[in-house]
């Protein structure tokens, strides 16, 4: 849609010299996700891959598991008073027979750290709604050397970041280190939803032999999204939260943090990492 970046005037100060020039900024706009015509959620995102974002969000909510669960995803016209389309509202229509969750102001959503739920309730919710138990998948075995090379490959694939410096990124890699997909967004959770939603649309869920790499920290929300998509390994270049570590331990997710060059911390699921003996 050509709305990923925008230009703004900026005054630059460099070593005391002042100049005026246009600057490229990452676009940020609200996206309202509707389910069968009813408002469900609003997220601030970088426009693009909106249908995948909505589908991935619904995977993390336990609503979708296969592409056949979706009848259609469309932009809603008439969002403005003049009836024009803002392309900021999408409606996901479920296929016949797919259960529709109770959509209320007090619905059970476990996607933000500000949801007000205790840790135990959040862990129980993910464990009971996950469609693809990670513990039941064939084991993935990764070397530290393979993991060490992934952040640089992710950074090289961040096309919009090079122009703006203001985006998070998430990537899927195979167990042999092949880059499968990469998405960028102002929200790290949106970037992951776009990855998962695209995998759903392509009929690739569960991602039972994939590695999810995120450019920032590993929050509970991101660990949840990995678990709900059946991803066995989540790696982050920054720190995990305590609840993310708890969720990883509960569900069998391998969680790696501070992945920077040859250095990393393995917080859970070390059986998938081929560490040297004596560790």
Describe it:
This protein is an alpha/beta fold and 279 residues long. The chain has two domains: 30-108, Ubiquitin-like (UB roll) (Roll); 134-272, Cytidine Deaminase, domain 2. Helices cover 26% and strands 30% of the residues. The strands form three sheets. It has a six-stranded mixed beta sheet, with helices on both faces. A four-stranded mixed beta sheet has the order 4-3-6-5, with helices on one face. Strands 1-2 form a two-stranded antiparallel ribbon. A hairpin with a 2-residue loop joins strand 1 (5-14) and strand 2. Mean pLDDT is 86; it is low at 105-117.
Helix content range: 25-40%
Reported CATH architecture of the largest domain: 3-Layer(aba) Sandwich
Low-confidence stretches: 105-117
Task: Predict the CATH topology of the largest domain.
Answer: Cytidine Deaminase, domain 2
> Termini separation (Å)?
50 Å
Q: What is the domain total for the residues?
A: 2
Helix/strand order: EEEEHEEHHHHEEHEHEHEE
The CATH class assignment of the largest domain is: Alpha Beta
Number of strands: 12
- Taken from the alpha-carbon principal axes, the silhouette is flat
Give the mean pLDDT.
86
Q: Give the structural class.
A: alpha/beta
Detail the topology: elements first, then pairings:
Blueprint lengths: L4 E10 L2 E10 L2 E7 L2 E8 L4 H11 L9 E6 L13 E6 L24 H11 L14 H5 L1 H7 L2 H6 L3 E7 L4 E7 L2 H14 L8 E5 L5 H9 L4 E4 L5 H10 L2 E7 L2 E6 L11
Parallel strand pairs: 3-6, 9-10, 10-11
Antiparallel strand pairs: 1-2, 3-4, 5-6, 7-8, 7-9, 11-12
């Amino acid at each position: 849609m050509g709305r990923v970046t925008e230009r703004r005037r900026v005054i630059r100060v460099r070593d005391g010299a002042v100049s005026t020039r246009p600057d490229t900024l990452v676009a940020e706009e609200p996206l309202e996700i509707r389910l069968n015509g009813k408002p469900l959620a609003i997220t601030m995102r970088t426009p693009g891959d909106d249908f995948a974002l909505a589908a991935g969000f619904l995977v993390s909510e336990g609503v979708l598991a296969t592409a056949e669960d979706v009848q259609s995803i469309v932009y809603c016209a008439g969002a403005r008073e003049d009836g024009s389309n803002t392309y900021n509202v999408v409606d996901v229509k479920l296929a016949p027979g797919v259960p529709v969750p109770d959509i209320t102001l007090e619905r059970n959503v476990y996607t933000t750290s500000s949801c007000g739920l205790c840790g135990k309730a959040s862990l129980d919710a993910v464990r009971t709604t996950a469609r693809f138990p990670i513990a039941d998948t064939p084991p993935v075995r990764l070397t530290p050397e393979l993991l060490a090379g992934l952040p640089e490959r992710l950074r090289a694939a961040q096309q919009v970041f090079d122009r703006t410096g203001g985006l998070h990124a998430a990537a899927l890699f195979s167990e042999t280190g092949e880059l499968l997909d990469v998405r960028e967004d102002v929200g790290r959770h949106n970037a992951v939803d776009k990855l998962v939603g695209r995998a759903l649309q392509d009929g690739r869920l569960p991602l039972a032999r994939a590695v999810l790499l995120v450019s920032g920290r590993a929050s509970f929300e991101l660990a949840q999204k990995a678990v709900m998509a059946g991803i066995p390994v989540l790696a982050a270049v920054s720190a995990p939260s305590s609840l993310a570590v708890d969720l990883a331990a509960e569900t069998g997710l391998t969680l790696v943090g501070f992945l920077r060059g040859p250095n990393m911390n393995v917080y859970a699921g070390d059986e998938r990492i081929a560490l040297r003996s004596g560790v």
